[in-house]
Structures are given as C-alpha cells and as structure tokens.
Amino acid sequence: xxxxxxxxxxxxxxxxxxxxxxxxxxxxxxxxxxxxxxxxxxxxxxxxxxxxxxxxxxxxxxxxxxxxxxxxxxxxxxxxxxxxxxxxxxxxxxxxxxxxxxxxxxxxxxxxxxxxxxxxxxxxxxxxxxxxxxxxxxxxxxxxxxxxxxxxxxxxxxxxxxxxxxxxxxxxxxxxxxxxxxxxxxxxxxxxxxxxxxxxxxxxxxxxxxxxxxxxxxxxxxxxxxxxxxxxxxxxxxxxxxxxxxxxxxxxxxxxxxxxxxxxxxxxxxxxxxxxxxxxxxxxxxxxxxxxxxxxxxxxxxxxxxxxxxxxxxxxxxxxxxxxxxxxxxxxxxxxxxxxxxxxxxxxxxxxxxxxxxxxxxxxxxxxxxxxxxxxxxxxxxxxxxxxxxxxxxxxxxxxxxxxxxxxxxxxxxxxxxxxxxxxxxxxxxxxxxxxxxxxxxxxxxxxxxxxxxxxxxxxxxxxxxxxxxxxxxxxxxxxxxxxxxxxxxxxxxxxxxxxxxxxxxxxxxxxxxxxxxxxxxxxxxxxxxxxxxxxxxxxxxxxxxxxxxxxxxxxxxxxxxxxxxxxxxxxxxxxxxxxxxxxxxxxxxxxxxxxxxxxxxxxxxxxxxxxxxxxxxxxxxxxxxxxxxxxxxxxxxxxxxxxxxxxxxxxxxxxxxxxxxxxxxxxxxxxxxxxxxxxxxxxxxxxxxxxxxxxxxxxxxxxxxxxxxxxxxxxxxxxxxxxxxxxxxxxxxxxxxxxxxxxxxxxxxxxxxxxxxxxxxxxxx
Length: 766
What we know:
42% of the residues lie in helices and 19% in strands. By secondary structure, it is an alpha/beta fold. The chain is globular and about 95 Å long.
C-alpha cells in the first residue's frame, strides 16, 4: 500500500472548528429555552424562502488542509450565499443584544470560516465579502441581521490561522494514536485465560463494532462482563472503524468497576481516558452560579482552556481527582473541562446521562469532529426505567415560591405571571393524569427564560442565588421536553394545593423512540446485563429492537444455586395482614443461623410489617431505613465483608439488589418476599394502556417483567464466584408459574416447598 493511501484524514465541521479556536469569553449561567431543532429548521426555511434570487440556500462547502503527517477536511453547509457574501441564520428567542458576547463571537467565527472557504470559489472577483449573522425569532420570524464586511485576504488568513491551530492539536493526537497502535497490538487480557463465556462475549462485541451493529448481551452475574466488553472495544481502537469508547453506567459502582478494569488492562496508563462526573460533585465553587461574572473558575474559561490544552496528553488517566487538581492549579472549571476533553479521549467513563439526556452535547460534539464512538452500557436492564426518568420532568411550585422570596420587584412581576399560569393549570386537579399539556405555563416559562438576562441587568445590585440558576434550569428543561412529548409516549400529571404544593409533571411512558435516536448517532451500542430476560421486552423498550441479541451460558453449575420456591404463600396486597405471621418462622430460621443473609421485600411497608413480628438481635439484624445516606449504605456492606451471622432486611430494587459483590461467606443466603411487581396505580396503568395500544403485552411489560428482573438481580447477589454456593428462597405462589413458563434461569437447581417445612427456630439448612 502506498504512503498516500496510508495517510489518515481527520474531519471536522465548521462550527466545531470555530469552537476549538475560541480563545476569549466566560462561561455563562443563564439556561435558555432554545428553539427546538424543528423550529430551527422552520425558521431557516422561512428566511431562505424570503430571499430574492440568485440567493442560494444550503450550500455545501469543504476545504482540504494538508499537514505533514495527515490531511484535514473542514466541511459544512452555509445557510445562504448571495452575490456579495454569505449568511449564517441563527434562531433565537431573545434579541441579539441579550445574547452573551461569547456566543455571538462563536457565531461570527463560524460565518467567517464559511466565507473564507468560499472566497476563491463563489467570490473570486471580489476583494471584500459581506458576512451576515442573521438572528431570527422562531415564532414571529423577526430578523436581526448583523453584517460585517471583510477583506477576502483577511478571511483567508483567518481560515489558515484556525486550521493551523487545529493542525498543531491534531499533530499531538496523531502522534498519540500512532504510538498507541503497537501498544494495543501487544495488549493482553489481564488474566491467564478468558472464561469461555467471556470469550464468546468479547468476540461478539468485537464483531459488532467492526460491522457497526448494536449488540445486547445477557450474561449471568460472575461472567466478567466489564472486562469482556472493555477489552475488545479497546482492541478495536486500532481499527479505522471507531475512534473512542464510552463506558456508561447507571450507578457509580459501575464506573468504579470500569476504572478498575481499565487499570488492569492498561497498567502503564498509555491509553487516554477521562472520567465524567456530575456538575455538583466536580464543582470547585458550589456557592456561586456557573458564570464568569461570579465564579473565578468560569471567568476567562475559553482563554484558560486553550492555554492548558497541551496538558491533555501529559496525564493519561484523567480521574475526577486529577481534573479537580488541574482545575485548582489553573482556576478553570473541571466539570466543563472534562466535557470538552471527553471528545478527544480514547476511553470515557461516566453516567448514562452524558449521551442520553436531552441536554447531552457529547454525541453531537463527537459527530462534529467525526469521532466514531462505541457505547458500552452496563446494567442495561435499567435503561428502560432510566430512560423514562431522563425524558420526564416536573415544574415545582416550591421552586417558584422560593425564588419569589429572594427576587427584586421587577423579577417578581415576571414570576407572578408564571405563578398565575401554574395556578390556572392546576386548579381543582389532584394527581390528575391527562394528555392535555399546560400550554400557558410552557409559554410563560419559555418567555421568562428568554427575558432572564435582561431582568438581571435591570437589577444590577441583585446577585442571583443558587435558586435562580435552579429555577432557570427547571424552566428550560420543562420547555424542552414539552416540545418532544407526544400523546402516544407521554402524559401530564397535575397536582393542585397551596402555591408551594402545586406541581405539573411530564411523564414518559415509553422511552424507546428517544433512546433509539441517541443509539443511532454513534457507531454502535453494546448493552449488557445479567437480566435482560425476556429479550423481546428489554430490546423493545430500550430502543434496541434491531440489535443482535446474545444470551451466554452460565459459568455456574446448578448445584451452586440452591433455589427453593415456597409455593403456598401469597404476598398479594389482599393478603398483607396474614403475611408476617405466615413467614415468621421461615425468616427467623435464616436470620438465626451463622450465615450472612439478605432478605428482600417488595416495599418498605411490607418490610416494616414483617420485621415487626421477628425476634431480632439488634447486633446481627439490620433493617434498611429510608433515611440512610450513601455512607450508611456503604457501612452495611463493609460489615458483611468483615462479620458473620448478619441479616439485612431491605427493599427489592434498591441499592442492595444490584452492584453488590459479596463472594463466598460474605453472603450465602438470599430470601425474596414477593415477585416485586410495580405498584398498581394510575400511572402504571397508563403505561400499560400505552404499550397495549402499540400492540405490546401491556400487563407483562408494565408489571410482570420489570418485577421479574428485580427478583433476578437480587437473587444474583447469592453466587458471585465459581466456588460460591448460594441458598435462594422465593416466597410467593406465582414463582411456580414463572418456573413452569421458563422465566427463571435454566442454571438454577429449583425445589418447590411448602411453608410447613419451616417450624419455629428450625434451620432450613439442616
């Protein structure tokens, strides 16, 4: 192969190049109810259609930049080209005078690059070119054109400057990539051999990346899914198919496991990796808004970012601690720095929100620099419920009332309009679920966000408290999600009361469509979990119905899972009063032996009623409380790691149901009281109805299967290693039917039992 063919071509669009070269400006705190993409498209078309010929809309442009070791292609689409220049159209709900200088500078830079690319194509006979940034209101279509005339050579010089800056950066990245290839070739699995199941998963993961196919893998707990997904994904970085890997988890425990695996795979830290943390946990100035006017870490952010960019390759594993350290040293926000640096990293570890939330910019930034990412989703059985949470929101009267107490009179007048709209929308409605949207409140919230910058300027002595930023964010999210909502997949819930008690919620019933849109932005998705059964349920609702599905065999023998189904006990709500006495002896027999035990209940109410009748040794028996902090929960786990004869009575589906690794004698018995069905209520019934209307088995998808997955996750705590032997007791007559219908794992050794088997103080292990 010739050297020419081997040259790598990097691609970047014009907006991303302008952003990369931005060296002045602060971070700003005002969240804005930006026009939706549909509104933006409508605004663009409306303005373009008004322009007289020979105006040319949507003109594709590109330029090739040749560096010593690679090529760079800058491309984009100009909104409009006219006889003397170009036009960049930006939809906005606020007049240009209210747009932050940082944003306006970015818009002008983008327009100048477009003009420079066209300088010798469309404007070869002109010495000067008009560059217009036309701001347009998406509803009124009012225009605010801002036109500047530049000398053609000055524009070309600006393009050269931008490309040269980007070339310097790419030279570092390219050198890193070239050095990484032989290292990846030599990279070995951290253990002497892969388990058979791990190898099967790793092979499927690698193939799915190369073929750009989504993959869902169900593999029992203990298979080693983290390494089996991360290892082939890292190996695939040397191929031309992908440029990065995002390992996303639902909980912090998943991120810890990913980092531990990365350290095993890359002990010399040659692979560039970054940890994305929440804004709250990474903030160095929590008492101030994220605004250069108030926060030193936001002030001059873009200048500082360009000054320390070279440090990116100096420290290969950027943990939250490392990012906060560099933030303190350089007075720059580590949260936003991690967001900027993530698109250049080989490996990114973070929460699912960073790709799937409506505010997530990562997938679009990746696309702008042609960074083809593979997404690894840990504990993917949670994606359905997490998706519902991501695409749901609420407007709280309490937040409005808290801000009203702190604001000056001019802002209170505007907030009063929102208060009136909220009162009208909620009037005489108590937990009422409907498909009717609160249009008046949405409009007032949108208007307030648009006016927020001007309102602050009218009150120069008012220093916006944290409640201001929280309220602006709430309004923006409320407006944004309302624009995505449709009657098939969303409902509204209204609650009246005192001003602070009023609340309107937008609730997502089926997240599949919105999740699928995110899946399809990247190269491919590899989702894995121990509990994706039944596959048709999981894949349909998590937006991966077209994915390849793989169910791996268990590494465990049936004798390791000693499962007893108590066939003659009902945990139904109608039998709740008899349940505590019915299972008292069974619970007592397990809690009195010397083995560590988890007992899971379907609710706190059930937990409280059943533990109330037990003879509890307070030194050995632990009852989960709603008020527990994360430190309290961690302390319980530490006790199980160091003591024997402990019993934890906890709630199914909570923190102890998954992500807890207590091998061998640390946890030997798991008891599950009831099938964990979600509560029957109006919302869940609306979910059932919505799914049924789409031709799905509504009851199974809303109640049966979500409960089953909670049970299987909890039961998975009992056996963690190849040498573990775990006792699992399932208490409810419905489990027999699950067994007969093939819903329980085939690798379990199951025995059906009668509650009469347990008598007072008799150990079941006898």
